[in-house]
Records
---
Amino acid sequence: MARRKSQPVVLTGRPATLEDIQRVFKLSNKTVARLTALVESTPGVRDSSEAVIRRHKQKALTAGS
Amino acid sequence: MSPRSVFLNVPYDKPFQPIFLAYVVGVIGYGLIPRASLEIQGSTHRINHIVELLHSCEFSIHDMSRIDVPRFNMPFELGLAYHHSLSLADKHSCFIFAGDYKGFEDRLSDLKGIDIQVHDNDIAKVFSRLCAAFVAQDLVPTVIDMKAVYELLTDSLPGVLENAGSDSLFHPMVFSELVFTARAFWNSRPVKTRSRQA
């Protein structure tokens, strides 16, 4: 039921994998290959968490100036 | 054990697309699979398929940001989900979100006493409210991670839209590909796991 503040939801199942999503949405292998290539070609996908935090801090500073 | 799903009950209109994308990113960050009625196309007895989809999900998110205009699908589906959650005790949980709280108590006064996650139509607040809703989840994605994946997903959006020949996120092919792409982006960012005491 809808939660009140004192009722946290405890989740215990395993996280969804790409294979789960492919199965649930019936994605073809061709689609998966195309999307994988799209993901790998997106700039910034290999950035470390530190690089992301630095970029967000920089953005916040720029927005505040 | 299968991964859990979250039924997204949100308004399908263009101004809402950034918030919709935020729900997709946030939900996947928690290792869950977002599902939506937009997956059900051209079917008779559409409502039966929606109920079936809702019942297959362990959670549902209901964004009541458009209850000030005559759109009844969202409150109707919230009612269905709420009843489902009452029938199944702890096996289904529904979370209620809204852009603002103004007028909420008047229009949905039966929900008095229930937590409403108000996000002010702000992406970062949607992420923050998702963190509040899924506070006891094993995975603990941060709002910074969610913002990073959101940015990556936004950058890859033209490719996904072009392939589906659509300019809307509320298209079944776009939605399924976005879910896959978002999961792939999350895979590139290790998410902390909450340590639990035995």
Note: The CA atoms of residues 6 and 34 of chain B lie 5 Å apart.
---
Amino acid sequence: MQQRATAGHRPARIYGGWKQTAVNKAFLVPVIVLFLFLFVVPLGQSFYWSLTDFTGYSPEANFVGLQNYATIAGDPSMLAGLGFTLLFGVATTALVTVLAIPLAVQLNKAFAGRNFVRSLWFFPAIPSMAILGLVWRYILSPLESGVLNSVLASVGIAPVGWLSVDVLAKISVIAVGVWAATGWHAVLYTAYLQSIPQELYEVAKVDGASARQQFFSITLPLLTPAMVVSSFLLMTGGLKVFDLPYTLTNGGPGFATYTITQSIIVTGVGQGRYGLASALAVIFTLAVAALSFAQLWITRLIEKRYV
Amino acid sequence: MRSSTWRRVGLSIGMIALAAFIAIPLYYIVVNTFKTQGDMVTSPLGLPRDVTLDNYSQVLSDPRMYRSFANTLYVTVLAVGLQLIVGAMAAFAMIMRTTRANRIIGNLLLIGFIVPGQSTLIPLYRTLVGFKLVDSLNGLVLMYLGGSIFCYFLIQGYMKTLPYEIIEAARLDGAGAFQIFWRIVLPLIKPILVTVGVFQTMWVWNDFLLPTVFISTPERRTVVLQVYNAVSEFTTDWPRFMTVSVVALVPMVIFFIFTQRHIVSGLLAGGLKG
């Protein structure tokens, strides 16, 4: 036991003295150093480089204004990357939400084998998306030997170019993304479902509400907080997508399933065109920020309507 | 009564059938690891004609597999451990003193919470080249430390619920800030450390983006990178590739079985915060 302090103990939130302040600051040093090194400085560099013709090969960077942004606007591969990334984000968010809520309602009921079923649904969230993408590449292989195609062949359907036709490749990537995320988000929703008081349903039943009415006037409104969290995770995760299309289709055919992330890596790390890659990164950052705010705004509106 | 029992049976059958359908890809990977190549080509979804363990003995005798596991373990343990310490320290400082400066810092850190890794990838890549930290496991760990900020936000939310009297009592007994942090606060926040640790472990262990950008030497590959490279190596030997995948998945599955309940509680914790 150390020496007991005798006087001057005020509640900690106001207690002062430079020593305590210094100690307090010391606890913040690691996070601030990391924050500056990993976020502030590189973000600043990204914004600055996006206005220059900086490459890895010459030490000089000339200010070129918005030229990099003009280049992106005229580059089909980069536009395709932007487009598919947005499509993936929006499509997976919408589809997973529409599928996960009814699934959660079913998973919340008592039935034999419930834990087993829940685990199977949840499982795709455990392994790396990259490995799942590779496995699905074999399943969806456009060749006759592809698993899905050989199953189709056994019922007399000709091989389908799941990953070799633009539209089908886009649908395939989104479908695998939905397959992987639905169970996880259903579990998230079940956690919230359990916090809905049962009395509400009992009262509704007494009043003669049908199962459908109960779902739309009790379950769904009370799940709004869960929808906020789930759709936010889906949207930000969807915009950051890289592993799945990269391993499943490698961005192809052509640039049909190309993502911004792949584009940033290819342009920046692969070709050393830092200026151009930074401009892409800036667009990406702004898009993520804008969508995050838009989503926040929309969910606020929904909450106001129900709460 | 009768009809509700039947409804339950129906629900059970329906749900199991649906889940089985969803799980076909998993069945597909596992069942094919016990087949020969010819067997897999003729019946990709059937049960193996003769169960063979050759694929496993080949994959498990490959030293590169073990090497990649060791690499991933090193990166994951170091990165997640440091993330938790940095996050907890920052949360402790913020909780102990709610000055205006700290509030501003807390708001600024939100940037690190929202900004995706892709936004800072190119400048960081160049910086790490300068520090000779590209193609190094320690460089990879450094990159993952950005996750400290996520840890900070979740830990801070939990710390707010701690009984403040305990910390106050310890200080009255003359304990210094570091002592209070190590001996009192850390043990008290163990539940959130476990939950956040589980999430960060799944992220770092499974991540593909950073290893594929930063690691080029085969000896420094992480497991996911090793699997990715196995595809081009075994282009025609599908059962062999499936076996590599299964071996790579086993540690995560075991990890999941032991940490399942923390994942669900973590989903809720994250949810309550939002």
Note: Confidence is low (pLDDT under 50) at residues 1-18 of chain A.
